[in-house]
């Protein structure tokens, strides 16, 4: 007899306390159920169930075997569900939170490419720099540009690094001068992102760290806006390299310093079966990021 079927029937009898009840539930005869249990007991050379005229109860060996059966059957069910999930088509609504540091143009480009590749997936994108509560707010996953991992119940999938540089427009440099050291920044107009820091910047030169407290002139909550302010000669700012790479009017300042990089991760809730649409987005976003940003 099929052992898996026998184990399933054993679990049902143990939970129902009756051969007849289980037989009625699956539209078969009590003798069919009894034969499977008897076959199990024969193979194990021990009695699993104690039968009486009124009910059926587990023996001590039966209790131990039941706990193992539940684990095994759950693993089988999980494996089957995962395989079915992987072979099914990617479809449905996918809710994703993305930080503004990716930039509106790059985000729109990424979304368009993803939608072209997966026409049966609908995207619901939130551009937000908060550490949103994925489960509470109903999001499938989020992109995080930070090394912080505030929630241990989430899965963090490393995507890559987003390098930053200190930049300004050529016109701003002509009008206000070029800084030669990190300390010179205290005399210039600085544009900062609201979630970037508390006004203290850390610079690295020859593996030596130098911290400088800078008073910002402008503080905003959008990397896209920071870029436009720099482009409009309003000050100095840290920007992701890919954002200004094709802008000849923006130049890098203090190249002797290592300005660092943000760690970019995809974060999603830990669950038994991750939906296909989430897997597809993870695969797509990693490839897109490596080509577009981390190159």
Description of the structure:
There is one protein chain. Strands 3, 4, 5, 6, 11, 12 and 13 form a seven-stranded mixed β-sheet that branches. Strands 1-2 form a two-stranded antiparallel sheet. The chain has a two-stranded parallel ribbon with strand order 7-10. It is elongated. It is built from ten helices and 13 strands. The mean pLDDT is 85. Among the domains are: 3-71, Winged helix-like DNA-binding domain superfamily/Winged helix DNA-binding domain (Arc Repressor Mutant, subunit A, Orthogonal Bundle), CATH 1.10.10.10; 162-262, D-Maltodextrin-Binding Protein, domain 2 (3-Layer(aba) Sandwich), CATH 3.40.190.290. Helix 1 (3-16) packs across helix 3 and helix 1 (3-16) packs across helix 4. By secondary structure, it is an alpha/beta fold. 40% of the residues lie in helices and 25% in strands. Keywords: DNA-binding, Transcription, Transcription regulation. Pfam families: HTH_1, LysR_substrate. Residues 1-59 form the HTH lysR-type domain. GO terms for molecular function: DNA binding; DNA-binding transcription factor activity.
Low-confidence stretches: none
Helix content: 40-55%
Report the average pLDDT across residues.
85
Helix-strand string: HHHEEHEHEHEEHEEEEHEHEEH
CATH class of the domain at 162-262: Alpha Beta
Number of helices, where a helix is a run of at least 4 consecutive DSSP H or I residues: 10
Overall 3D form:
elongated
Sheet with the most strands, sense and barrel status: 7 strands, mixed
What structural category do the secondary elements indicate?
alpha/beta
Percent range for β-strand residues: 25-35%
Domain HTH lysR-type: 1-59
GO molecular function: DNA binding; DNA-binding transcription factor activity
Protein name: Putative HTH-type transcriptional regulator in ibpB-leuC intergenic region
Keywords: DNA-binding, Transcription, Transcription regulation
């Amino acid at each position: 007899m099929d052992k898996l079927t026998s184990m399933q029937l054993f679990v049902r009898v143990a939970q129902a306390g009756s051969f007849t009840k289980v037989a009625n539930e699956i539209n078969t005869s009590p003798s069919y159920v009894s034969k499977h249990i008897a076959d199990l007991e024969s193979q194990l050379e021990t009695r699993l169930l104690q039968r009486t005229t009124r009910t059926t109860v587990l023996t001590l060996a039966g209790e131990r075997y039941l706990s193992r059966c539940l684990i095994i059957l759950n693993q089988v069910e999980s494996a089957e569900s995962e395989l079915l999930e992987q072979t099914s088509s990617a479809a449905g609504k996918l809710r994703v939170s993305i930080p503004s540091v990716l930039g509106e143009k790059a985000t729109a480009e990424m979304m368009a490419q993803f939608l072209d590749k997966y026409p049966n997936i609908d995207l619901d994108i939130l551009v937000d720099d908060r550490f949103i509560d994925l489960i509470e707010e109903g999001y499938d996953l989020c992109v995080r540009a930070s090394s912080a991992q505030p929630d241990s119940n989430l899965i963090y999938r490393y995507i890559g690094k987003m390098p930053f540089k200190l930049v300004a427009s050529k016109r701003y440099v002509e009008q206000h001068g070029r800084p030669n050291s990190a300390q010179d920044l205290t005399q210039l107009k600085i544009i900062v992102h609201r979630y970037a820091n508390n006004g203290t910047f850390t610079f690295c030169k020859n593996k030596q760290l130098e911290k400088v407290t800078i008073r910002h002139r402008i503080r905003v909550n959008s990397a896209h806006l920071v870029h436009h302010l720099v482009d409009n000669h309003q000050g100095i700012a840290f920007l992701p390299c890919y954002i200004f790479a094709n802008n000849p009017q923006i130049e890098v300042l203090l190249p002797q310093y290592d300005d660092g990089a943000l760690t970019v991760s995809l974060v999603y809730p830990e669950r038994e079966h991750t939906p296909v649409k989430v897997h597809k987005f993870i695969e797509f976003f990693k490839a897109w990021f490596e080509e577009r940003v981390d190159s």
